[in-house]
Amino acid sequence: MIELQALRKEFGSFVAVQGISLKIDKGEVLGFLGPNGAGKSTTMKMVAGFLTPTSGTAIVAGHDVLKDPLAVKTVMGYLPEGAPLYPDMTPEGLFKFVAQARGMASDVASKRTGFVVDRLQLASVIRQPIETLSKGFKRRVGLAQAILHDPPVLILDEPTDGLDPNQKHQVRGLIQDMAKDKCIILSTHILEEVESVCTRAAIVARGRVVADETPAKLASRSKLHNAVCLKVRPPQGVMVFDELRKVAGVAEVEGNGTEDGIVTCRVIAKGGKSIVGDVSQLVRNKAWEVKEMTVESGRLDDVFRDITAAGGVA
Amino acid sequence: MRGTLAVFRRELAGYFATPVAYVFIVIFLLLTGIFTFQLGRLYENGNADLRIFFDWHPWLYLFLIPAISMRLWAEERRSGTLELLLTLPISLGGAVLGKFLAAWAFAAVALVLTFPVWITVSYLGKPDHGVILAGYLGSLMLAGGYLAIGQCISSISKSQVIAFVIAVVVCFVFMLIGFDPVLKVFRGWLPDNIVSALSSLSFLTNFESISKGVIDFRGVVFFGSLIGVFLFINAVVIEAKKG
Q: Which residue of A18, A42, A50, B216 lies most exposed, with the fewest beta carbons within 10 A?
């Protein structure tokens, strides 16, 4: 549905995006991750037909954004960075304007407006000037205008920025519901969001895609992947750490302190291979009293930091 | 077409959603009234025509029209809504035209509301209604010319103040370019045919040619082409500025 072909954007001598190629299919939700200034928004602006690429192009639902931008804009819903909206309009007026601009029949428009207002809980502010709304409402009004025409392709630049935890949950639910028959690109700084809504995560740094995998796979790159968190009460005088270090596959044991004879530690696996079986075997053999034992899947923020910081001092 | 209509409606409704429209219309009517009756001495002149009324329009528009046009693009650029507008399936030309037509329609509403002046002279004497109608047409075209220039300049800067000041200056030049003292400045160093071409760009001359009611569409064609040229430049500037 969306294909980025060596998309590149230069602003004067500054290269914001240095040739990004990606292919996103229907049913996929691609999370765009990356530090500020990595080129996420610039890339999205080019796909949405706002910025003209310096070279390369994007094909959206079969339409080339350079040759037929109007066709691309017709099939696409776009939430720009910062959700800019006309301050003196009401959400109602804005939806009417967007529906007219998109040539929606009036019965379809009113049905869809009802749907988005309901799903994003905008009914209480529908006749208030947008400039008087809170940040959370503004963001949701922006999202509502993007999905008003039920587009097959959605590009959302930080859709949950400025929302409270309940609103975030709500918006993620909405994205998940829409995901199966749409092709969605969203950018975010919130890594848990990627894990909860995205089927794919692309990490962008310095204008390049440096990783493109499922969030779970990406997380497994973390050194904490398959690490075992352990809280045990060993008999007096037993060196828990030394015993754990003897287990095959254990790379390292990090202690997190001892309290009332209970030892808390994290056992890190060599190469992210599963060690939970061996560790639990040891615990059982030694008859340590287990208070807690969990396996970590790895942390996306660690991976994110590793990948984007690597070579960061260019 | 669809996009132009949507932008037109949004913009026109926008004028009346804020005090801008009411303030503008009240000031415009007040000033035309003062200029026509106090300064222009319409009654004392004893002529049943609206020459005096229309004579003030180029000067009034010089400040009032840039006040309408200054926000047209500057505001979109500053608030970031330009991105929202240009990622809707509306062509750039359609958006430019929609904005212009809405502003022009708004100016037309203000102009139409001066009808009591027409009623007054009709009551007092027997004016030539054809000439008055031509005067209104001339005034409307003149407003369109100022607006197109102002809208184009509004696309250059994010600042409405800068857009206003530059628009006033450019409009002032266009207004006076056919005026003899101004032409004299050019005559010294420009060939005659260029000077006469410049003088034909004069807003005052073209406005007068329409409002005299002569059956002569040169003035209308002039303002029409001027509007077209500036709206085209407007679209080019927006395209270039968004990167």
A: B216
